[in-house]
Amino acid sequence: MGTVVIPEPLTLYTADDVRIDAGHLRGEGDLCFILAHGFTCSWRQPMLRRIAGALNRHGGVIGLDFRGHGRSGGHSTVGDREVLDVDAAVAAARRRGYGRVAVAGFSMGGAVVVRHAALHGGVDAVVSVSSPARWYYRETVPMRRVHWVIERRVGRLVVRLARGTRVASKGWDPVPEAPVEVVGRIAPVPLLVVHGDADPFFPLDHGRQLYGAAREPRELWVEPSFGHAEVAATPDLIKRIGEWAALAASAMA
User: How far apart are alpha carbons 198 and 214 in whole angstroms?
Assistant: First the structure.
């Protein structure tokens, strides 16, 4: 059996004073990945731990629980103020001596890392997997369920009891910039957009729209038979993402 690596527990605080639960896997070299999960997930879940372990072959990894998720404080704003959670993790990586930081997000986390890189910067590579390009998308059954969870009091109660996710009761005011509206600001930092042609939440046009609005350097990977986000990510896909990010971040050095 292989050696089990125990993450260093981290408690981070955001610019708006929300406590964020995170874990750090020390890696060789000066690259650190910030791993941003999807809605109702947690860095402590086995699928996120497997992804972190695969990325750890290419550098350090800081996985975090977004506000309102897992052991973090606060309430989820479903992609808005979560950019501050990522910013706190990036700062923690820099404090630990990493010279290069790559952010990798899945679904809601993919939207967050795009928005963070565009609005806050300070990173060297961006990977967005299964991200929505635009808000309020309801054209698939899974996304109609997500909106019911977010917008209805009973839905928020159900997701808190079933998944431990606490969603803010007040909606967006003002509405934050959608990923497609800001993705063009990420350049010259390299951007990788990954989307599956079998995504049951967001069809492929979301990935193509994000890529189309971005500026070079950018890449779009259309993954055949790939579903949605962390749960569908294969070891091969994560390996390729790690290799791409390591090379892209090196180009920024």
Answer: 23
Q: What is the Cα gyration radius of the chain?
A: 17
Give every strand in the sheet of 8-13, ordered side by side: 8-13, 19-25, 60-64, 31-36, 100-106, 125-129, 191-196, 218-223
The answer to whether the CB of 59 falls within 8 A of the CB of 124 is no
Cα atoms found within 13 Å of the Cα of residue 82, Cβ hemisphere only: 32
SS3 assignment, position 106: strand
Going along 176-234, which residue ranges are E strands? 191-196, 218-223
Per-position b or e across 158-176, b if 16+ CB within 10 A of its CB: ebeeeeebbbbeeeeeeeb
Beta strand pairing call for 31-36 and 19-25: unpaired
| Strand runs labelled E in the chain | 8-13, 19-25, 31-36, 60-64, 100-106, 125-129, 191-196, 218-223
Cα distance between residue 227 and residue 30, in whole Å: 32
pLDDT at 2: 44
- pLDDT tens column, 162-194: 999 999 999 899 999 999 999 999 999 999 999
Burial 113-141 (b: 16+ CB within 10 A, else e): bbbbbbeeeebbbbbbbbbbbebebeeee
* Mean pLDDT across 227-252: 95
| Cα gap 22→100, rounded to integer Å | 19
What per-residue confidence (pLDDT) applies to 253?
A: 63
Give this prediction's pTM. Answer: 0.96
> How confident is the prediction for the chain on average, in pLDDT?
96
